[in-house]
Amino acid sequence: MSRIEIKNLCGGYDKHTVLKNISLFITEGSFTAIAGPNGSGKSTLLKHMIGELKPDCGEITIDGTALSSLNRIDLARKISFVGQKSEFAGDFTVQDLVALGRYCHFDEKSSMSVIEKSMEMVGIKHLKNRLISSLSGGEYQLAMISRALCQDTPIMLLDEITNNLDPKHELKILKLLRRFTEEGKTVVCILHNLNHILNYADNTILLKDGTLYDSGKTNETLTVEAVNKVFDVSCKITHVDDRQMLTVY
Ligand code: ADP
Ligand code: MG
Description:
By secondary structure, the protein is α/β, with parallel strands linked by helices. It is built from nine helices and twelve strands.
């Protein structure tokens, strides 16, 4: 299990500062959702958390160790990432794609069983010999999640991975993410569907214009007032059986 701490983070791209003074604590074994309007800095925050972007100020630590002090292999053993526009050039089979997750482990003996297990857990074992170019959007996204799972990291960071998926695949992925946290992984996922956040995420981080609007337990953070302030829409939260329904209008 791993925890992430972000202290006074400022950062972005060359002369374009996006994130302003972000401080956060992401608890181990939790499912944390990041939400905010388009362009509010969600993907930029994840890029800082995987070390792709370097902070202008502030620090990110993982289990108390500065992210900046970890080498590529150590980092790949700590954090797996599925990006918003993750596309692989070339034609691999699903199994080859998933196997890429093992590159940081150098343990050929156990690799095959981990690859098989990762495909089985995500439910794509029957696709293992298929070329990735032949997969549907949902199947491809599941293969990418399987690759991240195969990396066997305590932290998984995922950027809008449920976009463009049908309701069945969407729920399948959300349930999978919950299952990963039950097994001790720390999962951080950018999500646009506020209903899904309400019903699946333990904690929520709300970003607005590159600043942290609020973070904490989802029920206390994703409130009617917060949705109004962050997204500039009205909303209502109702209960249907044991589910919560957030309607924006
Ligand atoms: P979100 O994921 O919340 O939609 P992003 O983090 O992708 O937003 O973008 C935040 C801001 O940074 C936006 O204004 C966007 O235009 C800008 N931005 C994103 N990527 C780059 C880049 N590679 N170079 C310069 N600016 C960028
Ligand atoms: Mg984004």
